[in-house]
Amino acid sequence: MARQDPEARRTVTRLAMGFMMTHAVRAAAELKLLDAVGSGTRAAADVAAESGTPVETTTRLLRALAGLGLCAEPRPGEFSATAAGALMRTDHPASMHAFVETFTDPVMTSAWPELPFSVRTGRTAFDEVHGKPFFAYLREEPEKSALFNDAMRDGTRAIAEVLPGCFDFGPYRTVLDIGGGDGTLISPALRENPHLRGIVFDSAEGGAQAPDRLAAAGVGDRCTVEAGDFFAAVPAGAEVYLIKSILHDWDDERSATILGHCRSVIPDDGRLLIVEPVLPGTADPAMAGLYLSDLNMLVNVGGRERTRADFEALCARAGFAVTAANPVRDTGYWLLEAVPQ
Fold first, then answer.
1. What is the pLDDT of residues 117-135, one digit of tens each?
2. Which of 23, 92, 130, 248 is catalytic?
3. Residue 248 annotated among the catalytic residues of the structure
């Protein structure tokens, strides 16, 4: 009989039960349990009363969250949020509540059971399950589109705050953010460079929240919002073209189309800034989340995560040469700089 390896069995068990973790975290987000726990220690009975749920089942969920590292139970029946759990509060300045709601939403998870189909065929499972592409689905669901935009903002805050220190915007007059959403990414660059003007370019629904967000950031008078389709054209008039978390949504053919439109309007001394995660050249267990993101791109939108070599080849195909590629500390993103060839 083969010798049992307890640790290996625990690993497989934890992975097989991963969907239970996802649903527990989603339930906490939907019920806003971490909002009810607040910033101190609170009795489960009080959390339940605020959430409108029975004490017994609320306690069971809170203990599961404690097991997942989102809560602690310092005394029986009393709970506090960990640093990770606090990020699930809607009032936290770095809240990930919208991110959790979006990525645990049944719409987002419904195509995952068809991962074998996508692996076998290379086709997008979401299209097969829902009869339309993911972004077409969002266009027809304004509430889910708004939540998705909020989730993208949650994922952009960290890189947005450090971007002005990663690239010298000083020599340039105008920066255009392709697929810029609500303006979260471009706002700090404009705030730190008072001479700089900005353009947020996105679909009508993607940029719907941008005017208010830019105004709140104090840069609304120096940034315009333009609606359009980056598969058809990209506006001229900027020296720096910024594109974050867009290329991974699309296959190489469509990504090259977007970059090709950038190449057709960027001046010879302009700069293309790509902000994306970058896969290592060979598998690294520490990058498990990025590999799962790669599969999510395959299943839900038909895109992919890429290595540095992939980005270099993609840029060359569109008429750009990558001149620098560096990880941005503590954000999970890289900043790739490219120039027109």
1. 999 999 999 999 999 999 9
2. 248
3. yes
Q: Would you say 66 and 79 are in contact if contact means Cβ atoms under 8 Å apart? A: yes
The pLDDT tens digits for 251-289 are 999 999 999 999 999 999 999 999 999 999 999 999 999
Distance CA 73, CA 238 (A): 54
Return the beta strands (E) in the chain as ranges: 41-43, 71-75, 78-81, 174-178, 197-202, 223-227, 240-244, 271-276, 320-328, 333-340
3-state SS record for 123-190 = CCHHHHHHCCCHHHHHHCCHHHHHHHHHHHHHHHHHHHHHHHHHCCCCCCCEEEEECCCCCCCHHHHH
Distance, CA of 151 to CA of 100 (rounded, Å): 8
C-alpha closest to that of 209 among 153, 164, 157: 153
The residue behind tokens 């027109």 is 340
CA distance 18 to 158: 27
Is residue 210 within 8 Å of residue 202, measured between CB atoms? yes
Pairing between β-strand 78-81 and β-strand 174-178 as defined by DSSP bridges: unpaired
Token pair 């978390």: residue: 245
For residue 232, give the amino acid letter. A
| Closest-CA residue to 174 (of 150, 153, 200) | 200
The number of C-alpha atoms within 13 Å of 279 and in the hemisphere containing its C-beta is 20
Copy the structure tokens of residue 281.
């050249």
Instruction: Supply 218's token pair.
Output: 């104090």
Q: Are residues 258 and 228 in contact, defined by beta-carbon separation less than 8 angstroms?
A: no
Number of Cα atoms under 13 Å in the Cβ half of residue 82: 13
Q: What's the one-letter identity of residue 301? A: V
Q: Coil, strand, or helix at residue 237? A: coil
Residue 198, strand partner residues? 175, 223
Taking the model in full, what pTM does it have? 0.91
